Amino acid sequence: MFSTADTIVAIATPAGRGAIGVVRLSGPNARSIATIMRDADSALLPRHATFSRIRSADDVVDHAIVTFFPAPHSYTGDDVVEVSAHGSQVILRSIVASAVAAGARLAEPGEFTLRAFLNNRIDLPQAEAVADLIDAVTPLQARAAFDQLDGTLTARIGEIDAALFDLIARLEASIDFPDEGYHFVRPGELIAALDALLDIVTSLLEDGRRGRLIREGLQVAIVGKPNVGKSSLFNALAGSARAIVTPVAGTTRDLVTEIVDIEGLRVTLVDSAGIRPTEDPVEALGVELARQAIKTSDAVIVVLDSSETFDERDAAILQQTRNFRRVVVANKCDVRAQSDDTFLAVSATQQTGLMALRAELARALDVELQRGQPSITNLRHLTLMERAHGVLTRARASLIESGGSLSEEFLLADLQSARNAVEEISGRRAPDDLLAHIFSRFCVGK
Ligand SMILES: Nc1nc2c(ncn2[C@@H]2O[C@H](COP(=O)(O)OP(=O)(O)OP(=O)(O)O)[C@@H](O)[C@H]2O)c(=O)[nH]1
Ligand SMILES: [Mg+2]
Q1: Residue whose CA is closest, atom 10 of ligand 1?
Q2: pTM value > 0.70
Q3: What is the C-alpha separation between 253 and 234, in angstroms, rounded?
Q4: What are the tens digits of pLDDT across the range 39-91?
Q5: Type and span of the H or E element at 303
């Protein structure tokens, strides 16, 4: 379905103005098309930046730096030419038009990275990491994506695949030579091998929660009874006066959200209505939304008001949130009426204690990423790895139950299905429609 036989072109830099903008060509005719576009007879030397005048429709449109990356040592693995021109959309579009006139085709979304995958420059998790790296909005997201692009996950998946391959080969040999009366793999060895595999898979899955939260971001709800300063704290953490603040209890009625960076985590912060029994139908809806927000969030910040003594309504909210990841803060510490140090003292209006709150929150969310540790960040990978874990666990259980006399065919079926899942992650066994789906989420030029 996918072809790498033609030459594709696209603007690789974002829309808008910039000092430079890059047009990328990839395919067998990249160099000859670039030669037609250039107003010069000097040849393009491999990996040399060459100053060129670029022609479009008989006119010179810009001065640009043109670099030729011959196959296979290029981003896509094909011949690639990059034209770094001035970053005007008008100029970049006319350079693309000039390439098309010279025989190139407009690239589809993600097609450069797709070619890198089809040419075995990268595997599927690495291709997906390219999209994540470009989409990263916090340093931690960028790091997780880069580690994946750098191949940490690829290497670990490769280990699992190789171990499965080895087991499958030995079991098949036992089936193929039944008369020898010789099992190529003893039951004890098999269980040990399955245990080793399950160890790797389990640790990947355990880190998967963290990885996925880093990639997709998390939600944190700010909750408490009315007037304790939730909206003030929300604004202080968001760095802008997003939510309405008044001395009237029951000000916030809706959920107000803002994306903030908490210690490198992409957090959707949610301000909510103060929780209290109320006759007001509008406020009651707000209170219901606040209760829902507690349930759907990855963590909550429970706000207490230290200018007053804590009461049974505070206690009720503490009780409701006791099984959630949470940080409890005593706000208004600038006017505090009590000397209770149980909770983290903050002042939303004075902006004190916010650093400690961010640190506490990051700790409560427990998503620290170990550098260089392979981590699954993507739901697709996580689901497939869970499938592999399921069948391997089942295989191990039936092997033990049968006292080692389980037929090789049974085991083989499970191992094969675990291997299929693993190879679907790496892309060795990825159907075209899956690839089309993954790469359609990229933007043009990637
Ligand atoms: N002194 C002091 N006052 C604060 C602090 N934080 C909030 N306030 C005041 O407390 C009042 C209520 O603040 P809000 O942020 O609206 O409280 P809320 O919890 O969102 O209230 P509802 O939306 O009604 O539930 C306002 O008058 C704020 O100025 C603080 O740290 N110190
Ligand atoms: Mg409020």
Answers
A1: 229
A2: yes
A3: 14
A4: 876 889 999 999 999 998 878 889 999 999 999 999 999 999 999 999 999 99
A5: strand 299-305
User: From CA 274, how far away is CA 281, in angstroms rounded?
Assistant: 14
User: In this structure, are strands 256-262 and 218-224 parallel, antiparallel, or unpaired?
Assistant: unpaired
Cα 146 to ligand 2 centre (Å): 39
φ and ψ of 257, to 5 deg: -120, 155
- Summarised one tens digit per residue, pLDDT across range 413-440 is 999 999 999 999 999 888 888 888 889 8
Residue 343 in tokens: 């909770």
DSSP run (H or E) holding 271: strand 265-271
DSSP for 92-109, written as a single string: HHHHHHHHHHTT-EEPPT
Written as one string, the DSSP assignment of 109-145 is TTHHHHHHHHTTSS-HHHHHHHHHHHH--SHHHHHHH
272 ligand 1 Cβ < 6 A: no
Atom of ligand 1 nearest to the CA of 252: 23
- The minimum-distance atom of ligand 1 relative to the CA of 274 is 25
Average pLDDT in the chain: 91
